Amino acid sequence: MSLQYFYFIIQYSAKREAGKEAQSRTGKMKLEVYADRMSQPSRAVIIFCKVNGIDYTERKVDISKREHLTPEFAEINPMKQLPAIVDGNFKLFESHSILIYLACAFPGVADHWYPANLFKRSKMHSVLYWHHSNLRRAADTYVTNTTILPALGHPSNQQAAAEAEKLLFSSLSKIESFWLKGDGPFLLGRNQPSIADLSLVCELMQLEVLDEKDRERFLGPYKKVQQWIKHTRNATSPHFDNVHNILMKVKEKLKNKPLMEANHGGALDIQKRLRSGI
């Protein structure tokens, strides 16, 4: 069997299965998305649904109130993490798996989000797998330990923050020099965004809560990364900004942190105000 014929069979089978899945959704209950918009992967899933006109119900799970650790939510996701979805009798967690499922199961999602082409799809998978062990681990650990935990009055791990800082610079450098290599403005040199673009840019948006000088220290050297964030934001407008609105509110509260400490009782008040935005 030639490689071309093998490739054709795989593509044909994938399209046929996607068609069956779309048909099987007829009559199902509305998709439920369990999310906290302060969660980067939660935002990616919500934006994807909005951009692609997927009808869904958002079930808010407040991480700051530890609602993701309840027995009720464990019935949805035994790992007790966000996001998660319920589609009829089907339950799924892990944001990348969710995005892939949504792209395949719902009719009308443009091919550029998750290409039917096996080679393009495999390249996209390589970005998604890289993301979890590099950019996500770095950005989440750094922001949590330098900004979120101190603002909530919790102890932070400075050693973890220092290690995450190195990995974050390394990750941004690889995005700039490798993943954004090509003629197009999106990952892998493509001309339209994919689920990988959305997932990684939502991750980087978490840097918005950093001090402006700190954020500029990370993103300033990487002009292609800055343009890529802008292109992804514009391609998913107005939903991108709407879904990130809660993050921007938290950013403002953290920006005014010294004023809060002086006028409203210090760390306890910051904790209440930050959580009110979450």
Automatic annotation (TrEMBL):
User: What's its EC?
Assistant: 2.5.1.18
Keywords attached to this entry:
Detoxification, Transferase
Positions the record marks as coiled coil are: none
Protein's name according to its UniProt entry: glutathione transferase
Read off the Gene3D superfamilies from this record.
Answer: 1.20.1050.10, Glutaredoxin
Q: Which residues form the GST C-terminal domain?
A: 117-259
Q: Does the keyword Transferase apply?
A: yes
Q: Which family does it belong to?
A: Belongs to the GST superfamily. Theta family.
A Pfam family found in this protein is GST_N
| PANTHER family tied to this protein | GLUTATHIONE S-TRANSFERASE T1-RELATED
Q: What class of enzyme is it?
A: transferase
Q: Which GO terms describe its molecular function?
A: glutathione transferase activity
Q: Which reaction does it catalyse?
A: RX + glutathione = an S-substituted glutathione + a halide anion + H(+)
| GO BP, sorted A to Z | toxin catabolic process
Q: Which residues form the GST N-terminal domain?
A: 29-110
